[in-house]
Design goal:
The protein has 338 residues and is mainly α. It is built from 9 helices and 4 strands, in the order E-H-E-H-E-E-H-H-H-H-H-H-H. Helices cover 33% and strands 5% of the residues. A 4-stranded mixed β-sheet has the order 2-1-3-4, sandwiched between helices. Helix 1 runs parallel beside helix 3 and helix 7 crosses helix 8.
């Protein structure tokens, strides 16, 4: 998610730009970037659903020490993502005030804006990749030598075709569909996108009525990608993006599915609702010019029983849950869980 042109949202047709930097960090280093513990820094915003995929994957796979993380301020300025949450307003490892500085070091004047998630090479200070679609798949498949003992297989080879198919549908109609609805510049564009969001959500609810997870009987990359949209649905997409045919809490299957994942270690313990709400409502001035952040919704329900375990399934397959969140990565006091 980038930060340029925030006041233009809602005034021109929305089109998500492709990731300009698509280098891959691989076990064999074929793009010039070999997997190496401590060499890279993952830059994220807890507000951004695309970045949140990487935060969840990193935690589930136990890559916290191998791939240290920087968290940006959820409220951007004209230069996009900034490190104002850190002492002195600089990332303590990269020494920069703005993520844009790593982009500029890699390619001055590069097109496409500044987006997260991004991985920066610490020795050179250069951006390596902002390819949010491939990044998490590589964490699951290329970083295996650095995975924790008991890490789940988030992209099992025998299920990849089905996972890819599900993820493509979720991306088009749900992950990106809410943005096309929220940033629509005319009624027809909005109605088409909004209807598409709910058609896909209803189809997913039917799929999940009889199985605990989207593909197979364990958590996969597909579940991570759907979760990061669902967890933002009632707080921001229902009101701010006008995706309001119904709330997540009004769909028994999807609400239970989302709570099941939220209460699974590695999911809810990475979510900061305060960052999410402040980013969307304060940054998207084109569709919320007052910058007022709503008080609701009540978030307590996220911790209520979901009963999805009755469908069977094994969240981590033959693996184990991740351990406790490191103290310096715990979610802020106004997020859930406390």
């Amino acid at each position: 998610m980038g930060g340029d042109g925030n006041s233009a949202y809602g005034h021109k047709k929305f089109k998500r730009s492709k990731s300009h930097f698509a280098d891959r960090i691989t076990a064999d280093g074929r793009d010039g970037w070999p997997v190496e513990s401590g060499r890279y820094r993952l830059v994220v915003s807890r507000a951004c659903p695309w970045a949140s995929r990487a935060v969840i994957s990193r935690r589930l796979l136990g890559l916290e020490r191998a791939l240290p993380m920087a968290v940006t301020d959820p409220v951007q300025d004209d230069r996009s993502w900034r490190f104002t949450l850190d002492p002195g307003g600089r990332d303590p490892v990269l020494g920069i005030r703005y993520l844009a500085e790593a982009y500029e070091k890699r390619e001055p004047g590069a097109p496409g804006g500044v987006s997260v998630p991004a991985i920066v090479d610490v020795p050179s200070g250069e951006l390596v990749t902002n390819d949010y679609q491939q990044l998490t798949l590589d964490l699951a498949t290329e970083w295996t030598a650095l995975h924790r003992e008991g890490a789940p297989d988030l992209y099992p080879e025998h299920l990849r075709d089905e996972i890819d198919e599900v993820m493509a549908e979720v991306y088009e109609d749900v992950n990106n569909g809410v943005y096309r609805a929220g940033f629509a510049s005319d009624q027809e564009e909005y109605e088409e996108a909004c209807a598409g969001v709910f058609r896909r959500l209803e189809a997913l609810a039917k799929r999940l009525a009889g199985q605990r997870y989207l593909v197979g009987d364990t958590i996969t990359e597909a579940d991570i990608r759907l979760f990061t949209t669902l967890v933002r649905f009632d707080p921001v997409y229902h009101g701010h993006f006008k995706c309001n045919l119904w709330k997540l809490t009004e769909n028994p299957v999807l609400w239970a599915y989302a709570r099941d994942l939220f209460q699974t270690p590695g999911f809810g313990d990475t979510v900061d609702f305060d960052h999410i709400k402040r980013h969307y409502y304060q940054v998207h001035s084109g569709i919320n010019p007052t910058g007022i952040v709503p008080l609701g919704p009540d978030l307590a329900g996220w911790l209520s029983p979901h009963h999805r375990e009755e469908l069977g399934g094994r969240p981590f397959g033959d693996g184990t849950p991740p351990g406790p969140v490191a103290p310096h990565e715990r979610v802020g006091p106004r997020g859930l869980p406390a």
